[in-house]
Amino acid sequence: MSEKSLSTPSPSLPLPAHSYAHGIKRKSQNPKILLGVLFLLATLFNFGPSISSLNPLKNDLGFVDDGRWEDQFDQGDLDKWSKCPGQPKALFPNSTWELSEEEKKRVVDTFSKAVQIPTESFDDNGEPNEDPRWKPFFDFQAWLEDTFPLAHTTAKIEYINTLGILATFEGSDPSLKPLLLMSHYDVVPAPPSTFDRWTHPPFSGYNDGEYIWGRGAGDDKPLLVAQWVAITNLLEKGFKPRRTIIFSHGNDEEEVFARRGQGHIAPFLEERYGKDGLLMVIDEGSGLIDDFYGAPFAIPGMGEKGYMDILISVGTAGGHSSVPPAHSGIGIMSQVVSALEDNPFPTKLTPASPLLTSLECALSHSPSLPSHYSKLLKNEGPKSFPKLANVLAKESLQRKAMVGTTTAVDVINGGVKVNALPEVVDTLINFRIDFTESINSTQTHVNKLVSHIAKRNGLTYHGFEGKKKEELGGKYISVELLGLPLEPAPRTPAEGGVWELFAGTVKAVAPGPNGEERIVTPYASTGNTDCKMYYNLTKNVYRFMGSPASASFNAHTVDEKFAIEGYFQIIKWVHAIIQNSDSYAGEE
């Protein structure tokens, strides 16, 4: 530093001598300053605890990662997941179906009619023969039978727990493990209050020549209808399966707990075929992307995050609003919510995540992968990619949701009247558990944060104890599971005969835009599907729609629609995978 910089005063920071020079003029202001300081000190002394309660929680309440996540995986698997899997050759089916214009018109009309049946499932649905909201599901079953008579007379049709649909096309060789194709026929409700916002009514199945519009047009009726259209065409051509083919359709995939449909069908099939009794399960999921950093990719879901819902309740004395405590039950619940949102789970990217595998494939095959991605993929790892995870998290909420456990506060209820303090306040919170985490580690983090809030407010804490509210006394915070949680899904293998069967069929049916090779890579979505019920039945679980990812618009919201060309692509995919699975003679 130069002498000039040492001796020259800053114009905005007067030297002490500057103050002394004006001491006489400011002398009369000193008592006011002194009184202000004394007032501030008194405020801090008397109200310090209340003010400090507004501060964030202590740093030691953040998530504790013990770094032992690797212990739950085989090191050989982690090494494989750190690389792009081998790409098999295209596997073409024995026959293809090029739909005529008349056939296209007929199958599109069938798709439209399926959307017109309002099979809405609600979180509070009663039993099938008791709750009238299930009636459209019986109508759908009847419509399906009327629309596909050949398939219905060929298959063994069973209705599991009344509304679950199971169609078994028996193969001639019982020693071969069956192929199971899944889809669900329930849809999320379309609230009447939103009807005026729809371009076309939600259950019109409107065909504008490019899209089919309506609730369920994207999720998940195009897949279900395509499955029946494809098998019908094969049967009409004289196809007689060697390997048993099973269609399994749940009726409550969109419900929070989703246990009445596939929750009954999967155990039924396990009893029939035994553990690991299926060759492969293919459910709804990801699809085709023609520009995955400059190359055509297929991104089947080959892993799923875990899932956990909890109910948090705050119990307080209540009372008249004219005599409120420092924090009402709602105020305390706001502290709970803030604690959970302000102390998130860590951002992470490891070989346990299929997202990393897809980026490794992009590194090998995509010409436009951003250079900073390439650099981080090469320089970080092999166990963890923290800098890359942070880069991804900043790109979008979608990407952020893929690099760690997410916390979503979705419902909160409390209070009944403006002049009465609430006695019980409830909130429902959803967690999507990272591939390296578990139900236990998620609960541990919740317990640590919420018990701290309880202690700070003089309330007893009951975390995941299974006690009823009447057992807890009047002043408490309790946390309980809502429904059954799910651990992160087992990873689907990306090697061996079944992988080559699946990926080879994708390459044959859906080459790149100019005929170039489509790369098939493991991927994962942020949500869960009904295939979570089938992990005991096979390790080969693929969440794959078979259509371009761009074909579906506005699932679960206003103006849901699906591209007709995308629907044709699903038919082509199902038509091929049924044939190739039937011809498959590799490892079971």
Task: List descriptors.
globular, Aminopeptidase, 18 helices, transmembrane, disordered N terminus, single chain, 588 residues, alpha/beta, protease, Alpha-Beta Plaits
Description:
It is globular, with a radius of gyration of 30 Å. The termini are far apart. The protein has 2 domains: 101-302 and 490-583, Zn peptidases (Aminopeptidase, 3-Layer(aba) Sandwich), CATH 3.40.630; 304-486, Alpha-Beta Plaits, CATH 3.30.70. 41% of the residues are buried. Helix 6 (101-116) crosses helix 9, helix 9 crosses helix 18 (564-583) and helix 11 (329-342) crosses helix 16. 36% of the residues lie in helices and 18% in strands. It has 588 residues and is of the alpha/beta class. Strands 1, 2, 3, 5, 6, 7, 16 and 18 form an 8-stranded mixed beta sheet that branches. The chain has a 5-stranded mixed beta sheet with strand order 11-13-9-15-14, with helices on one face. It contains 18 helices and 20 strands.
Q: How many domains would you count in the coordinates?
A: 2
Helical proportion, percent range: 25-40%
Average pLDDT, rounded to a whole number, is 90
Q: Ends: how far apart?
A: 76 Å
Shape: globular
The protein's oligomeric status is single chain
Protein structure class: alpha/beta
Strand content: 15-25%
For this structure, what is the CATH homologous superfamily of the largest domain? Answer: Zn peptidases
The CATH architecture of the largest domain comes to 3-Layer(aba) Sandwich
